[in-house]
Amino acid sequence: MAFWGMTQDPTQDATQQTPKSLPPRAGIDPTQEIPLAAEFPASDAAQWRALVEAALKGASFDKRLVSQSYDGFRIEPLYPRAAGAEPVAGRTAVPWQVIQRVDHPDPRSANQEALCDLEDGATGLNLVFAGAVGAYGYGLDSSRETITRALDGVHPEAGIALELQKFTHPVYRQRGGGVFQPGLSALDLLFNCGPAGRRILHESELRLAA
Q: What is the pLDDT of residue 100?
Protein backbone atom coordinates (compact mmCIF):
# COMPACT_ATOMS: atom_id res chain seq x y z
CA MET A 1 0.00 0.00 0.00
CA ALA A 2 0.27 0.86 -1.81
CA PHE A 3 0.56 3.71 0.10
CA TRP A 4 2.85 4.96 -2.56
CA GLY A 5 4.07 8.48 -1.62
CA MET A 6 4.72 11.50 -3.81
CA THR A 7 7.04 11.54 -6.80
CA GLN A 8 9.60 14.33 -6.81
CA ASP A 9 11.15 16.21 -9.70
CA PRO A 10 14.50 14.48 -10.38
CA THR A 11 16.09 17.90 -11.02
CA GLN A 12 15.43 18.94 -7.42
CA ASP A 13 17.10 17.87 -4.19
CA ALA A 14 15.17 15.03 -2.62
CA THR A 15 15.14 16.55 0.85
CA GLN A 16 16.12 19.70 2.68
CA GLN A 17 18.29 17.74 5.08
CA THR A 18 20.70 14.84 4.83
CA PRO A 19 19.61 12.14 7.28
CA LYS A 20 22.08 9.83 8.95
CA SER A 21 22.04 6.08 8.41
CA LEU A 22 19.36 4.36 10.40
CA PRO A 23 20.51 1.81 12.99
CA PRO A 24 18.93 -1.64 12.96
CA ARG A 25 15.60 -1.74 14.79
CA ALA A 26 16.81 -4.07 17.50
CA GLY A 27 14.14 -5.91 19.45
CA ILE A 28 11.28 -5.03 17.09
CA ASP A 29 9.20 -7.93 15.83
CA PRO A 30 7.80 -6.86 12.42
CA THR A 31 4.85 -9.25 12.85
CA GLN A 32 3.60 -7.49 15.98
CA GLU A 33 1.43 -4.39 16.12
CA ILE A 34 3.14 -1.21 17.35
CA PRO A 35 0.87 0.53 19.91
CA LEU A 36 1.15 4.00 18.37
CA ALA A 37 -1.77 5.29 20.46
CA ALA A 38 -0.64 3.76 23.75
CA GLU A 39 0.40 7.15 25.18
CA PHE A 40 -2.99 8.74 24.47
CA PRO A 41 -6.11 8.34 26.62
CA ALA A 42 -8.80 5.98 25.35
CA SER A 43 -11.76 7.54 23.54
CA ASP A 44 -15.16 6.33 22.40
CA ALA A 45 -17.72 7.11 19.71
CA ALA A 46 -19.63 9.52 21.96
CA GLN A 47 -16.54 11.67 22.52
CA TRP A 48 -15.79 11.68 18.81
CA ARG A 49 -19.37 12.66 17.98
CA ALA A 50 -19.24 15.53 20.50
CA LEU A 51 -16.09 16.91 18.88
CA VAL A 52 -17.64 16.59 15.42
CA GLU A 53 -20.81 18.40 16.49
CA ALA A 54 -18.69 21.23 17.89
CA ALA A 55 -16.77 21.49 14.62
CA LEU A 56 -20.01 21.51 12.59
CA LYS A 57 -21.26 24.54 14.57
CA GLY A 58 -24.91 23.61 14.26
CA ALA A 59 -24.79 22.17 10.73
CA SER A 60 -26.56 18.86 10.14
CA PHE A 61 -24.36 15.81 10.78
CA ASP A 62 -26.26 13.73 8.24
CA LYS A 63 -26.21 16.36 5.50
CA ARG A 64 -22.54 17.22 5.90
CA LEU A 65 -20.91 13.90 6.72
CA VAL A 66 -23.26 11.07 5.76
CA SER A 67 -23.65 10.06 2.12
CA GLN A 68 -25.34 7.34 0.12
CA SER A 69 -24.12 4.87 -2.43
CA TYR A 70 -25.72 4.75 -5.87
CA ASP A 71 -27.89 1.88 -4.72
CA GLY A 72 -29.12 3.71 -1.62
CA PHE A 73 -26.90 2.37 1.13
CA ARG A 74 -26.01 4.79 3.91
CA ILE A 75 -22.27 5.55 4.15
CA GLU A 76 -21.16 6.71 7.58
CA PRO A 77 -18.08 8.91 8.04
CA LEU A 78 -16.59 6.53 10.63
CA TYR A 79 -16.99 2.84 11.33
CA PRO A 80 -15.87 0.88 14.41
CA ARG A 81 -14.26 -2.53 14.20
CA ALA A 82 -17.00 -5.10 13.64
CA ALA A 83 -17.77 -7.23 16.68
CA GLY A 84 -16.41 -10.73 16.26
CA ALA A 85 -14.49 -9.84 13.09
CA GLU A 86 -12.39 -12.70 11.77
CA PRO A 87 -9.37 -12.60 9.43
CA VAL A 88 -10.15 -13.05 5.73
CA ALA A 89 -9.88 -16.71 4.81
CA GLY A 90 -6.61 -17.54 3.11
CA ARG A 91 -4.80 -14.43 4.34
CA THR A 92 -2.23 -14.43 7.09
CA ALA A 93 -3.22 -12.18 9.98
CA VAL A 94 -0.19 -9.86 10.08
CA PRO A 95 0.00 -6.10 10.64
CA TRP A 96 -0.29 -3.70 7.72
CA GLN A 97 2.91 -2.25 6.32
CA VAL A 98 3.54 1.31 5.16
CA ILE A 99 5.48 0.90 1.90
CA GLN A 100 7.07 4.08 0.54
CA ARG A 101 7.85 4.52 -3.14
CA VAL A 102 11.49 5.33 -3.99
CA ASP A 103 11.92 6.33 -7.64
CA HIS A 104 14.46 9.17 -7.84
CA PRO A 105 16.89 8.46 -10.73
CA ASP A 106 19.86 9.68 -8.69
CA PRO A 107 20.85 6.96 -6.16
CA ARG A 108 22.12 9.50 -3.62
CA SER A 109 18.82 11.39 -3.67
CA ALA A 110 16.91 8.09 -3.65
CA ASN A 111 18.85 7.09 -0.53
CA GLN A 112 17.96 10.39 1.17
CA GLU A 113 14.29 9.81 0.32
CA ALA A 114 14.40 6.27 1.67
CA LEU A 115 16.07 7.15 4.97
CA CYS A 116 13.77 10.11 5.59
CA ASP A 117 10.70 7.99 4.86
CA LEU A 118 11.87 5.28 7.25
CA GLU A 119 12.61 7.87 9.93
CA ASP A 120 9.08 9.20 9.45
CA GLY A 121 7.48 5.81 10.06
CA ALA A 122 7.54 3.82 6.81
CA THR A 123 8.08 0.11 7.38
CA GLY A 124 9.15 -0.79 3.86
CA LEU A 125 10.38 0.55 0.53
CA ASN A 126 9.23 0.00 -3.04
CA LEU A 127 12.19 0.51 -5.38
CA VAL A 128 11.00 1.58 -8.83
CA PHE A 129 13.38 0.93 -11.73
CA ALA A 130 13.56 2.91 -14.96
CA GLY A 131 11.42 1.41 -17.69
CA ALA A 132 8.98 -0.28 -15.32
CA VAL A 133 5.28 0.10 -16.05
CA GLY A 134 4.81 2.36 -13.01
CA ALA A 135 8.01 4.40 -13.43
CA TYR A 136 6.29 7.28 -15.29
CA GLY A 137 9.60 8.64 -16.56
CA TYR A 138 11.42 8.24 -13.25
CA GLY A 139 13.15 5.22 -11.72
CA LEU A 140 16.59 3.94 -10.77
CA ASP A 141 18.80 1.93 -13.06
CA SER A 142 19.01 -1.68 -11.91
CA SER A 143 22.78 -1.99 -11.55
CA ARG A 144 24.23 -3.49 -8.38
CA GLU A 145 26.13 -0.27 -7.65
CA THR A 146 22.99 1.90 -7.87
CA ILE A 147 20.93 -0.40 -5.64
CA THR A 148 23.74 -0.59 -3.08
CA ARG A 149 24.00 3.21 -2.97
CA ALA A 150 20.24 3.73 -2.80
CA LEU A 151 19.92 1.30 0.13
CA ASP A 152 22.94 2.54 2.08
CA GLY A 153 21.95 2.64 5.76
CA VAL A 154 18.77 0.59 5.22
CA HIS A 155 18.60 -2.58 7.31
CA PRO A 156 16.26 -5.28 5.90
CA GLU A 157 17.38 -7.63 8.66
CA ALA A 158 15.61 -5.34 11.14
CA GLY A 159 12.24 -5.98 9.47
CA ILE A 160 12.35 -3.35 6.70
CA ALA A 161 10.34 -4.78 3.77
CA LEU A 162 11.70 -4.33 0.25
CA GLU A 163 9.68 -4.54 -2.96
CA LEU A 164 11.14 -4.23 -6.45
CA GLN A 165 9.12 -2.75 -9.30
CA LYS A 166 10.74 -3.76 -12.57
CA PHE A 167 7.85 -5.18 -14.54
CA THR A 168 8.29 -4.65 -18.28
CA HIS A 169 4.97 -4.60 -20.13
CA PRO A 170 4.64 -7.47 -22.62
CA VAL A 171 3.89 -6.36 -26.17
CA TYR A 172 1.19 -8.30 -28.02
CA ARG A 173 -1.04 -7.82 -31.03
CA GLN A 174 -4.05 -5.61 -30.32
CA ARG A 175 -7.19 -5.47 -32.42
CA GLY A 176 -7.18 -2.55 -34.81
CA GLY A 177 -3.42 -2.59 -35.29
CA GLY A 178 -1.41 0.56 -34.95
CA VAL A 179 1.02 1.45 -32.17
CA PHE A 180 0.81 -0.83 -29.12
CA GLN A 181 -1.04 0.78 -26.20
CA PRO A 182 0.31 -0.42 -22.82
CA GLY A 183 -1.29 -0.13 -19.40
CA LEU A 184 -4.80 -1.30 -20.39
CA SER A 185 -5.02 -4.04 -17.71
CA ALA A 186 -4.95 -7.80 -18.07
CA LEU A 187 -8.44 -7.71 -19.63
CA ASP A 188 -6.99 -6.17 -22.78
CA LEU A 189 -4.51 -9.03 -22.99
CA LEU A 190 -7.31 -11.55 -22.46
CA PHE A 191 -9.62 -10.03 -25.09
CA ASN A 192 -6.84 -9.78 -27.68
CA CYS A 193 -4.94 -13.01 -27.10
CA GLY A 194 -7.36 -15.35 -25.37
CA PRO A 195 -5.77 -18.37 -23.62
CA ALA A 196 -2.35 -17.39 -25.03
CA GLY A 197 -2.40 -14.39 -22.66
CA ARG A 198 -1.40 -16.63 -19.75
CA ARG A 199 1.69 -17.78 -21.62
CA ILE A 200 2.63 -14.18 -22.47
CA LEU A 201 2.40 -13.11 -18.82
CA HIS A 202 4.41 -16.14 -17.74
CA GLU A 203 7.17 -15.30 -20.21
CA SER A 204 7.25 -11.74 -18.84
CA GLU A 205 7.68 -13.11 -15.30
CA LEU A 206 10.58 -15.31 -16.48
CA ARG A 207 12.31 -12.30 -18.04
CA LEU A 208 11.85 -10.37 -14.80
CA ALA A 209 13.28 -13.22 -12.71
CA ALA A 210 16.29 -13.40 -15.01
A: 93
